[in-house]
Amino acid sequence: MTIKSGMNPTGIPFRLLLPPLVAMALVIVLSNELVQHPINDWLTWGAISYPIAFLVTDTTNRLLGTKNARWVVALGFVIGVALSLLVDVRIAIASGSAFLVAQMLDISVFNQLRRAVWWKAPLVSSVIGSAVDTALFFSLAFAGTGLPWITWAWGDFGAKLFMAATLLPVFRLIVTYYPARLRLEEPA
Fold it and tell me: Is the distance from CB of 153 to CB of 138 less than 8 angstroms?
């Protein structure tokens, strides 16, 4: 089916995927702007906003399944990177590359841990995805610029670890209170 008929390629109503899709695109654009504003030599504001992308991916994966999570990541990637080109081309390319690899890895790791205790899949997948995202993004976006990108990368990774732990209760609340009739997969 097509989006025109109200369905996405995975066959569920597009309206169910619209909130995570919009959230994903906004997080990408916002983070790509905020990463250009350092807090200090160790941290940029993007480190605070970007981990929300993992929350969006993981809740979509848990509630609507792996195929739909991949679809949200792919379409969110296209929209977010296209809009980010208006912010900064180098940032958009680095962000798009790192985002796609890290989010698809997050989905795979989450899926392997889906049946574990509730917190394990979102925490482990976010930590692994964050490590890959940080290494790819900062090396592509800032290497050779003279900016303190290595310390930003370490600070960013530390902030992502903190945010992954901080967002676990939010994940739990969303998964717990999401209407059962709209779920495609039951939480483990």
Answer: yes
